[in-house]
Amino acid sequence: MSTSPRRPRVLLLTSSPLDGADGADVRLASDVLGSLPDVEFTWFAQWPHRRGRPPPAAHGGHAVRILSRDGVPHVPERAQSALAGAVHARRCDLVHAFLTIGRTFPAFSWLRPLLLGARPVVHTVPGVMDPRLLARTRPLGTTVALSESMARRLRAADFGDVRVIPPMIPLEHWPSRPRPAGLPVVLFAGHHDPAGGAELAVDAAAEAARAGAAFRLVLAMRGRPGQDRHALEEALRERAGAAGLRDVEVRGYVDDMPGLIASAHVLLFPPESIGGKADIPLTVLQALATGRPVILSDLPQFADFGNAVLRAPAGDARRTGQQLVWLLDQPRSWDVLAERGRAAVEEQFGPERFAAHYAALYRELLS
User: Fold this and answer.
1) How confident is the model at residue 2 (pLDDT cuts 50, 70, 90)?
2) Domains defined for the chain, CATH in brackets
3) In 3-state terms, what secondary structure has residue 341?
4) Secondary structure class of 116 (helix, strand, coil)
5) Ramachandran category for residue 160: left, alpha or beta (phi over 0 → left; psi -120 to 50 → alpha)
6) Are 108 and 82 in contact (CB under 8 A)?
7) Is the CB of residue 129 less than 8 Å from the CB of residue 194?
8) Using one digit for the tens of pLDDT, what is the confidence trace for 130-151?
9) Does pTM surpass 0.85?
């Protein structure tokens, strides 16, 4: 009697639990976990488990519990992840790390042989906090970038073998929806990061309002560990008021992002720098999948979207505001961009393409 081959064992190395805070690294790891049923995964889970927060879907393997109050990657969570990773890497055939290149990453990269042993490593890079960190960083193994722009930057920093696998969007969870009726809603969704786009979105909206556009601006803001979110949100309200905007709502973390994006007419996302955010922000993909036109700043990584989005020079509130006025005043162009956005997501960011690329990479490294 023949026996089926053993499934490969892969450790998903993240700096926080997969059922914790919903960051880009956690989202990418969860998508890989749910996309490759022929792999036996080990991943990190939160203890004690938060009621109402389901664990990630899994097709086998097991969870390693990490003590965490809120699932956010504070220093204790990062330390536990590194130690647990060092233990479980020896029990796996391959390590797949999902780690942003931040302040502590260079030291981790130099300790990679001690922590992860001789197992092959895939490192999916959600983002780079500061490009200067790349000069002090060693590649963990085969590196995966989310965009061609990031891949060129990593290759220029001597990262060697760099592949490009764009993130995925579960299309069944983000169906295309018709344009909502009533007063247009312009949405910004992001973090309280320097040059992250929130302040420029306010200034661009003010330019559009002065040009005669009528709309409601909604800022859905997420904080990072150590930030005074209430003070930052109040500062945005004051900035909007000083700019003459009256119909503005500043919100914190939103549980129902599908509902919020469906209620919007336009996603306005004009960062001057991505910083630690995902190189391809998932909110942008979610808006495009829903059929919502997107106005972006003209950063290199956004070039991959082609003519499915509108772009304005980074830091230019006047041009960004003009793009917004034009879009709100052109319903036929709105329809064209909505169709292009959905088509781009289906073609470039679908789950089948994502799963096939990672499955092929796993086979190559495990052979």
Assistant:
1) very low
2) 9-168+350-366 (3.40.50.2000), 171-348 (3.40.50.2000)
3) helix
4) helix
5) left
6) yes
7) no
8) 889 999 999 999 999 999 999 9
9) yes
